[in-house]
Every structure is written in structure tokens, then in C-alpha cells.
Please model this.
Amino acid sequence: EVQLVESGGGLVQPGGSLRLSCAASGFTFSSYWMSWVRQAPGKGLEWVANIKQDGSEKYYVDSVKGRFTISRDNAKNSLYLQMNSLRAEDTAVYYCARTKKRGEMDVWGKGTTVTVSS
Amino acid sequence: QSVLTQPPSVSGAPGQRVTISCTGSSSNIGAGYDVHWYQQLPGTAPKLLIYGNSNRPSGVPDRFSGSKSGTSASLAITGLQAEDEADYYCQSYDSRRTVFGGGTKLTVL
Model:
């Protein structure tokens, strides 16, 4: 079964750091772009970052550039999001998603919740 | 303010047809980038509904269809059912960045 499982969310103080993980199974992870998408409480979807199959290309939404880093370990079938200098506005459910060649995200995890609050 | 503009809400009675618009510009939809659509039921992760403007993934009923013209795209749902009540999002590219519409809440009356 094709599956993505996120982990690593939690409560963190403003200015703190958190590392999210996404474990992939049931497909050849190294063959796909991967993305992180977040959804603040009661709000819409916001793309955060994506990464090419070999990690050679990475793109970020402007609001997280310089603070967040997307990475992957194809040997471990895992995607990561290192989040530093966290702000209250980063509070959201974070989803990882498999991304296909036309840009569509065809497989999503259930999400992990990040709360930034003092 | 989303780069792609969707109506905040639409509604329809069971059996009716509704459409949800996604309006962009010359730097995203109008530049030729594909539009994809997602359905998000309450409390769940988004699900891919339409990809590449008008293609349905396996398992998506043919009541759902997508189209694109110029700087806009549309999602149409025919034979509306209670289970279609959800949030719907369009997605495309803009300046090499992925962008989503603000989302549309569909209410089945």
C-alpha cells in the first residue's frame, strides 16, 4: 500500500526549532519529487517547499526561506523539514505529499500538527 | 491573498450541477501551467480530484470534471451528492513556485 506518515510535530516556543519527518512506503521514493504543504487552523492549503528526486533542486515559499530546510534520504525512504526560528504564524498541520511530473500531489500523509506558542 | 482566486463558497441541491472557478493570471494558469484540483473532507487530508486540467485519477467518479481556458480553470460537479460537501482547492505553478487557490466550501443543501 502506498503510504506517507508524518511525525515530529508538537508544541514549540517562538524562536524554537522542530524537525518533521515523513516516512514513505509502498512506492519507489527516489523516483518522485516530494512536497510539504501546511494548513493553519481554519485556513486553506499553503505550499511550503518541494525537493527533486536526488535533492539537487529545492524550492520554498517566501515566508519560510532562510528558516526552513527541506531534505530527503532516499536510502531511508524519508523526507524531512527542518524548521528554525519558528513563529506563531507557522502554527499549522503539516502534510507531506508525493508530487508527480505535472505538479499534482497524488498521495498525502495524514499530517502532523505544529503549534508555536509561549 | 492567494495568487489563484476561488469563490469562498458555493452551494447546490442534491442532483444539481455546480461549478467552482479558479482565476489566475498570465504568470501562472495563463502561462500554460497545469491546474490540479483537490477535495478535502472535514478533518481529513486533501485528495487529488483532477490533475492536468481535466484528468481524473482512478477511482474518482466521472461526476467530477475539470477544464481550463486562458487564465482560468473550472471544476464541475454534476449529480451533486451529500458526500460531496467539502472544501475544494485548485493548484498550479507561478514563478517556479507551487500555488494553491484560497479554497471553496461546497455546501449541499
